[in-house]
Design brief:
Radius of gyration: 20 Å
Order of helices and strands: HEHEHEEHHEHHEHHHEHH
Largest sheet: 5 strands, mixed
Low-confidence stretches: none
Helix content: 55-70%
Number of helices: 12
Shape: globular
Number of strands: 7
């Protein structure tokens, strides 16, 4: 990580706390940099979870539970209120679990570590596998069927497919880094091929195209169809109980606000 960029992100997080009057519990990198296949011109996708003062949670009117702070060629910075995050953990939101396991952490608190421990109990294999299957299928149909394709899109398809395989075999949240999934999940005969593709892609810009790789396309199509059928037979394994999350929400609010 570029130290100048890291310092600038920390400064921006401090600005958010001061201007929005919030406490940031957790801030991470999301997207291609967290996945490990950023292009030279990739932006920084910073995601954070925050908590407001008690008065906010006691208001009756409809409230905004997110902050969109900055969006330009360098930074994409946004965050969720803790209440929104816990509601999405209850749904087993795969993107939120990715933030929770990001390998690039800009800020973390003891309160967030407690939240992570409870949230893991709400991981749903079917819900998260459905997210990854849908992501792979959509990106494949949208970007990889023409004669010339953006090679980066292969990783936007391969990574969710490997995540599906991880969930099928391990029954838990998959690693965020593509390299971890590659080493632990992908078939040996395909690893070297994909590693070479990664190196080739690193030298290309976000939008640069290359010739479609039919061998890889055929593999992807087989996997997409396989997981489509798997999902049809899977039962809903989400935890419907709110008690642990409600109690956690109250505990964190009390602890954080009493320390301010």
């Amino acid at each position: 990580m570029n130290k100048t960029i890291e310092s600038l992100i920390d400064k921006k997080l401090n600005e958010i706390e001061q201007k929005e009057k919030v406490k940031i519990l957790y801030a991470v990198e999301s997207g291609s940099r967290a996945w490990g296949f950023a292009s030279p011109d990739s932006d920084y996708d910073v995601r954070f979870i925050y908590i407001r003062e008690l008065e906010y949670y006691l208001k009756l009117e409809e409230k905004t539970d997110f902050i969109n702070w900055e969006l330009n060629d360098v930074f994409d910075i946004s965050g969720w209120d803790l209440s929104k995050a816990l509601q999405h953990f209850h749904k087993s939101n795969a993107t939120l679990f990715e933030w929770s396991h990001s390998p690039i952490v800009y800020r973390i608190t003891q309160e967030w570590k407690r939240i992570q421990a409870v949230a893991e109990q709400y991981f749903s294999c079917k819900s998260c596998m459905y997210h990854y299957y849908g992501t792979a299928n959509k990106n494949f149909r949208s970007y990889l069927l023409e004669d010339m394709v953006v090679y980066k899109k292969y990783f936007y398809v391969l990574r969710p497919l490997l995540a599906c395989q991880w969930i099928e075999e391990k029954r838990c949240a998959p690693p965020v880094l593509f390299s971890d999934l590659l080493e632990l999940i992908l078939e040996e005969e395909k690893k070297e091929f994909v590693k070479n593709l990664i190196e080739q892609k690193k030298q290309m810009s976000e939008s640069e195209k290359g010739k479609r790789i039919d061998l890889l396309n055929n593999y992807i199509e087989e996997k997409i169809e396989y997981y489509r059928k798997q999902l049809l037979d899977m039962s809903d394994d989400r935890d419907p109980d709110w008690k642990k999350l409600n109690q956690l929400f109250l505990e964190v609010i009390e602890k954080v606000l009493s320390a301010q």
